[in-house]
C-alpha cells in the first residue's frame, strides 16, 4: 500500500501518491460515501471488499480498515491537504 494519498472530494476518489504507483499499485479508487463522525471525515468504498477510512483534519493522518472472509486489515497513512 502507498504511504501517501490525496483525497479528491470534488470527484469522490482517493489517489495514491509516490513510489507505490511505479510498482503497479492501483492509482485511484472511488469513494462511495462521505460522512462525518465527531467532526472527522469518514469515507467508505468498495474495491474487492468494503473499506472505511477516517482522516484527521488537523494532521492528515489516516486509518483505513478493510475486512473480508475471516480476515481484517488496518492500514495507516497520511493525506495531503488541498493545494494552495
Describe the structure.
It is a single chain. The protein is built from no helices and 8 strands. The chain starts with a strand and ends with a strand. By secondary structure, it is mostly beta strands. Strands 3-2-1-8-7-6-5-4 form an 8-stranded mixed beta sheet, with no helix packed on it.
Number of domains: 1
Biggest sheet: strands, sense, closure? Answer: 8 strands, mixed
Average pLDDT for all residues = 80
Shape: globular
Approximate helicity band = under 10%
Provide the spatial order of strands within the biggest beta sheet.
3-2-1-8-7-6-5-4
β-sheet strand percentage? over 45%
- Give the distance, in angstroms, between the N- and C-terminal Cα atoms: 27 Å
Rg calc:
12 Å
Number of helices: 0
- Helix-strand makeup class: mainly beta
Order of helices and strands: EEEEEEEE
What is the count of β-strands? 8
Q: Are there runs of 5+ residues with pLDDT below 50, and where?
A: none
Features:
single chain, 84 residues, mainly beta, eight-stranded mixed sheet, 8 strands
Care to give the gist of this entry?
This protein is mainly beta. It has strands at residues 4-8, 13-17, 28-30, 33-37, 40-47, 49-55, 61-68, 71-80. Strands 3-2-1-8-7-6-5-4 form an 8-stranded mixed sheet, with no helix packed on it.
